[in-house]
Specification:
The chain is mainly alpha-helical. The chain has eleven helices and no strands. The longest helix has about 35 residues. The radius of gyration is 27 Å and the shape is globular.
Length: about 375
């Protein structure tokens, strides 16, 4: 007799799951996206305030407090540029070379297109070469790459660590920033003074941006198994590097002119000294940041040391002089001193409010 074969169900049943009988649990919710607008607003403010009122006295706090149009203009110009530079750097995972190229492009647009300071000889030791103050152009371009771009973006990374490696802008944010920056830049190109040079400067900036963006993303750097310098060593070193920058920009050109006796030759010597000095600074910083234990504290130490000379000369010293004159009974000096105090209090309130807004996110 043949054995009876029980009919098999169709379709065939799968093997019993090892998780059969266990209660089903919902997958964990995706991590909540952090709000980027507090960091964006802070970057807009710092991008304008650091190069214009802290490192230099180009736009004093008194003028910012008394002229809202100027305040809005520099915040829009510096802020949109730095937000776009940061987005290109973060989204494309680009290295420090691309970051420097983008910073140099902003320096060219700032001084060679919008402000037009390349076409004015303002200090002893500088002169025109073909209608352009070459040494001054190189010095200010490097200055903006360092203090107008690198310092604010690095400082925002320290103040908002949870948002440091994340992109901030969506599609409409990109469009808005490009539109504002483009309109402000075209306003400089439309100036009748040295218009041809401004167009050439804009073309050079576009070339630098293209080169920075087409470079292949770099591999993550390999940490160097050596301890980073002590915090006070970093502060004092950055302080000395900032003083070196000021010396290269304001002290060296008159000395070179006095030694060489030929102002055109002195310009090329100044350019060589600018490039050599800042190349050494970049290599030193690159060597420090490659250490395995480099972190936010070390970055903040370098920023504080680098900004201290400007804070002393442009933030602390003018109010002190105004107070000295106010104590002597000068009404104009007394009013200026009060406006400085009001602007300083406003800046402190804004920074404190931004810090308080960041606390709940850090705690949660």
């Amino acid at each position: 007799m043949q054995p009876v074969i029980a009919p098999q169900p169709w379709p065939p049943r799968a093997d019993p799951s090892p998780y059969a009988g266990r209660p089903l649990t919902a997958p964990p919710p995706p991590p909540r996206r952090l709000r980027a607008w507090p960091a964006i607003l802070a970057l807009f403010f710092l991008s304008a305030f650091i190069p214009e009122s802290v490192v230099t006295g180009s736009t004093s706090p008194v003028r910012l407090a008394g002229d809202p149009a100027v305040l809005l203009y520099i915040i829009a110009f510096y802020g949109t540029a730095n937000v776009l530079i940061r987005e290109a750097w973060v989204r494309g995972k680009r290295d420090w070379r691309s970051f420097i190229l983008l910073g140099l492009a902003f320096g060219i647009v700032n001084e060679g297109v919008v402000a037009g300071t390349w076409y004015h000889v303002a200090y002893t030791g500088y002169t025109y070469i073909g209608g352009v103050d070459l040494a001054w152009a190189v010095g200010l371009t490097v200055f903006h790459a360092a203090f107008s771009v690198a310092v604010p973006i690095a400082l925002i990374g320290v103040l908002f660590p949870r948002r440091a490696g994340q992109p901030w802008l969506g599609r409409w944010g990109f469009v808005g920033c490009w539109l504002v920056l483009g309109l402000l830049t075209l306003g400089g190109v439309g100036s009748h003074e040295a218009q041809g040079y401004r167009v050439l400067a804009l073309a050079l900036a576009v070339v630098l941006v293209v080169v920075a963006l087409v470079r292949h993303p770099s591999l993550p750097p390999v940490p160097v198994p050596r301890p980073a310098p002590q915090l006070w060593t970093l502060r004092w070193s950055a302080f000395g590097l900032a003083v070196l920058h000021d010396a290269l920009l304001f002290v060296v050109p008159p000395l070179v002119l006095a030694i060489s006796g030929q102002i055109v030759v002195a310009q090329f010597i100044d350019v060589a000294l600018f490039l050599a000095g800042w190349t050494g600074i970049v290599l030193i910083l690159r060597r420090w940041t490659a250490r395995a234990d480099w972190g936010a504290r070390q970055t903040l130490a370098v920023i504080v040391g680098g900004l201290t000379p400007g804070i002393i000369l442009n933030v602390l010293l003018p109010p002190a002089l105004a107070l000295r004159l106010a104590q002597r009974g000068d009404p104009a000096a007394r009013a200026a001193h009060q406006m400085m105090l009001m602007s300083a209090a406003t800046a402190l309130c804004k920074s404190g409010r931004a810090a308080l807004m960041e606390v709940p996110a850090a705690v949660l």
